Structures are given as C-alpha cells and as structure tokens.
Amino acid sequence: DVKVTQSSRYLVKRTGEKVFLECVQDMDHENMFWYRQDPGLGLRLIYFSYDVKMKEKGDIPEGYSVSREKKERFSLILESASTNQTSMYLCASSLGRFQTSRGHRDYGYTFGSGTRLTVV
Amino acid sequence: KNQVEQSPQSLIILEGKNCTLQCNYTVSPFSNLRWYKQDTGRGPVSLTIMTFSENTKSNGRYTATLDADTKQSSLHITASQLSDSASYICVVEGGYNKLIFGAGTRLAVHP
Fold this sequence. Notes:
Low-confidence stretches of chain B: none
Oligomer: heterodimer
Order of helices and strands of chain B: EEEEEEEEEEE
Structural class of chain B: mainly beta
Radius of gyration of chain B: 13 Å
Number of strands of chain B: 11
Helix content of chain A: under 10%
Strand content of chain B: over 45%
C-alpha cells in the first residue's frame, strides 16, 4: 500500500513564525503536491513537484515555498505564518503520467492524513 | 472557467437507506473523473476513477456514473452504513494533469 505520511496531525503556531510541514511517501512516486482545504471550498493547489529539486506554483502559492531535496520528501514552508493560513494542509503523491504500476497505468493520487494548522 | 459543482452540500439519511450524490463539471479538456471519500480529520481516499469512455464503475456499495455529454456524474451509495458518514469529493482531471476539486458533499448516516 502506498503511504503518504505527514509529520504532524495538529500544529499551533504564532503569527510571524516560520513553519515547516513535512511529507514523506514510500512508493517512489515522481509527483508530489501540497493542497490546502478550507470549509466550503474545494482543495486548492499550493505547489507541486515532478522531480527532485523541481517545483511549480499551483493556484495559491503566495506566502508559501517548498523544498524537494529527496524524491520521497516534499516540504511546505510558511515563511512568516499569518492567521489567514489557518487551514487543513494535505500532501499527495502520484506516479508520473506514463509510469506504470504492476503493468497498469496508474493515474491515482494518494493523500496523506492532513495537518490541521492553526495560526494565532 | 473550469469548475466542479456538487450537490447537495450536505445530506442526512437513515442507516440502510440509499442515496445519490451529484457532480456537474465544466472542465475542458477532460481526462478523467474521480470520487473520493474523506473521513473527518483524514485525507481523501479514492473510491473510483472513470475515463471518458466509461459510464459506470462500482466499488462495493458505491457506484459512480458518468455522462460525458451532459458533463454530469453521480455517486450512488447502496444500503448505507454508519461508516459511510464522511465528505464525498468529486474531482475532475483536466489538461496538463490539473485536478479540479468540488467542494464536497457532507453525508451523515444516522442509526
């Protein structure tokens, strides 16, 4: 089973703090994603990465940065946390589009359990 | 504008009853449509994924349908159980592997 592990389930941070959210996947997936989820809104893409040291902005990258030094690990960084960044953060991983898993093309995404961040 | 709209926003049913959740989308180009189940405080878990040529797919008591002409999908839950209480999210993959998420339907199954 693919596992996507997020280091913290709950975090409380103060305004202005630098915050690191860590995500690790154990299935050698090429693609990794960071989303935030807010009530009444769908998941919104913050950043994604197709390969080590590669990163691409998603729909709402402002106030965030990412780091992917190793294939299995994708970190989300809040440079200076603000109260409007209070949210549920979800990490996901997937195979590259033309990779196969056991001979079957796999477009599936696997999500982590999420980190609920509160900025006070 | 690429959008995925789900209805109803929330739903309460009695254990053992059936229910149907709706998803309308305006995503182009269209690659596939997925349904996810998200338990409270957890990440989404995939239920089904359907490509353009598939119009129905089942996963146990969950059956998803897709009408690519009208750009509508539904998720039917049969003989609901208390463990079905969750949010159900419709997701459409468009061009460049971009996922467009619906806001979800929150289902509560009561004994």
